[in-house]
Amino acid sequence: MLPVKLLLLLCFSTCSYAARILAVVFIPSLSHNLVFRPIYRELSLRGHQVVAVAPNPLNDSSLTNLTEIDVSYVYERNKNIQSTLNFDSYTDFWDNTFQWMMLSAEDILKDSRVQQLCEGGDKFDLVLLEALLPVFYAFGTKCDAPTVGMISMDGMLSTHTVQGNPIHPILFGDMLLSYHKPLSLMEKTWYVYYFIWYKWYYNYRVVPQCDSMVRKYLGQQLPPLEEIEANSSMAFINTNVVMNSIRPMSPTVVPMGFVQIRPPNPLSQDLQSVLDDAKQGAVYFSFGSNTQSSHCRLFIIVLRYHDRVCELKSIVEDQPMTGLERAVWWSEYVIRHRGARHLRSAVADVSLAEYLLLDVLAAALSVLLIAGIVSYKLARLVGKLTFCGCRRNKQKES
Fold it and tell me: Closest Cα to residue 258, out of 38, 21, 22?
């Protein structure tokens, strides 16, 4: 019996693999960081050696497999810039947000501790990165490791495009747009304009700027950043089909909704007193760390609201695994298979013209045009021959 147990022990010890994982988070916002920290924390608890670059490090000495590079200094620039951002329209929002994010990303890339990652034969088996910008996908190439992009909300148009998710301006497009009701003609027109603008802005402004930044700090020898981003294995997005718009998704896009949810801590005494004294019940919520608390006080005393929340909670939680378990399982899946190219959608590798069948339409129109021209020429030729024949007959009769 002992040899069998020993054999099983050896098998499990051989099959289990402690990987080296690099996690890079760069947005100076606790709301964003709270989504990613449980993932690399859990991976470290599962025996993987994790190096995390983060503005909000865990600073937990009990996590012996976790090494953190504290980049909380990016908050200093954030204080000076965020108040000046212009969010008057969706296009202004993205323009200002991308420029702000690039400043945070560049601050981190300047850090000598970050630049030394993957130097001197130091390798990783997986790179997890915050994917609101394509900058940190470059560490996948530098470290010779598959990459998984993580987003603390729904994916952007660029995220869905890279992973091969179908995109349609008026059905399932960008996370900022609403698809919960029938759209008016004016709204459809605006959505199409926004779709075209975003594609142009991301491909011809954001990616080139990020490419220049990466080459400046990580080396000119890297391939084009557009190719590096397109090589990513997966994207983890913080969505749930119940709470977000339903859309077709490639197997390489993993919804990890509510990954940041954990058992609640006790409320402060004053807030607990307010809620306890509410005769008909109360709901208190915050808009996150990016909005000042003075702007987000909202109390709803409605029993119907409570019932609806309980109903949604029951639906949301009715799934085979939690968002955290799903994110961890797919992270280890990518490690085991050195990527996930076999799950890649064919849509990711076709151009927009091919996706919209414009090449087929052009070929069909060309055939019809050629057929029309040939028919027209033949008709003219037949008409001309007929006319000439009739004319000769008349001449003979006369």
Answer: 38
The angle subtended at Cα 60 by Cα 54 and Cα 62, nearest 5°, is 135
Can you tell me which residue has the tokens 């109390």?
299
CA–CA dist 57, 164 (Å, integer): 33
How far apart are alpha carbons 254 and 249 in whole angstroms? 9
Percent helix, strand and coil across the chain, each to the nearest 5: 55, 10, 35
Closest CA to 291 of 29, 90, 27, 74: 29
> How big is the chain by its Cα radius of gyration, in Å?
29
Q: Rounded to an integer, what distance in angstroms lies between the CA atom of residue 332 and that of residue 376?
A: 65
In this prediction, residue 97 carries a pLDDT of 86
- Say how far apart CA 309 and CA 360 lie, in whole Å: 49
The string of DSSP letters for 80-123 reads: HHGGG---SSHHHHHHHHHHHHHHHHHHHHH-HHHHTTT-TT--
What tokens does 289 get?
């760390």
Average pLDDT over the chain, rounded to whole? 86
Helix axes 207-218, 90-110, angle to 10 degrees: 0
CA torsion 349-351-355-361 (nearest 10°) is -140
**Section 187-211 average pLDDT:** 93
Strand 147-151 and strand 49-54: pairing?
unpaired
Q: Pull the structure tokens for residue 396.
A: 């003979």
Question: What is residue 316's predicted lDDT score, i.e. its pLDDT?
Answer: 85
Is-contact 133 94, C-beta < 8 A?
Answer: no
Structure pTM? 0.83
Distance separating alpha carbons of residues 40 and 23, to the nearest angstrom: 7
For residue 17, how many C-alpha atoms fall within 13 Å in the half-sphere facing its CB?
15
DSSP for 29-70?
Answer: -HHHHHHHHHHHHHHHHTT-EEEEEESS----TT-TTEEEEE
Tens digit of pLDDT for each residue in 334-390?
999 999 999 999 888 888 788 888 999 999 999 999 999 999 989 888 877 776 766
- Classified as helix, coil or strand, 177 is coil
- Burial zone of 20 (CB within 10 Å; 0-12 exposed, 13-18 middle, 19+ buried): middle
